[in-house]
Design goal:
Elements lengths: L1 H15 L2 H11 L13 E10 L4 E2 L6 E2 L1 E12 L2 E13 L2 E5 L2 E5 L4 E4 L4 E5 L7 H9 L14 E8 L4 E12 L11 E6 L6 E4 L15
Parallel strand pairs: 7-12, 8-13
Antiparallel strand pairs: 1-6, 1-11, 2-3, 4-5, 4-10, 6-7, 9-10, 11-12, 11-13
Length: about 220
Amino acid sequence: MAIIATILMIILFAFYFNKRQTIKRKLKKAIAKNISDFHSGEIAKIVGKVEIIGEPLLSPLSNRECAYYHVLIERKVSSGRSTHWKILIEEEIAGRFLIKDGRHFAYVNGKIVKSYIVQDRIYRSGFLKDATDNLEKYLLSHGETSEGILGLNKTIRYKEGVLENGEMIAVIGKGEWKNAGQENLPEHYGRILTITSTDDQPIYLSDDPDTVANKNNQIQL
């Protein structure tokens, strides 16, 4: 019984403190503040719609136009009597976009960003199921292939999440009011709120529906 209890504790601990749950928990507990009510130097949560600047990115697996994408590709491997998923490729790419809240805009400009993007497209390849040409092309571009020894298919799952134009997202970070030109953004955006990380806290960002649900009150950190 002690062994079983220990195993369960390890599983629960790993679940509670994994990246996805940590980011969701941080954003869900926070009450969003309107961008217009933000004061420079504050750390708070904002919620708004993605507005892509310039040419959008094209997500590699589903070919969707987007402002940001996260791809995770894993291979199922066996070790004795157990199996687990081994990460082959993980890639997060951000384009240039703003967060729109009414007539006001915020811009995420920080190197330390912890994001959880809902992975709403999942593909698989393996026994009797070949990878599509697009999936194989992406694997090859990263030095991987869907086939193993003797040309047999590996068991692989492919996950992709994106931020699309007009999608609601939540962000926590430190805000500073600047003119758009100071961030090399189009001047017609005027005064924008730049969101950055601090020495103690990264920027948290997610499009999970639970994280964008509450608004209109200041966060207490």
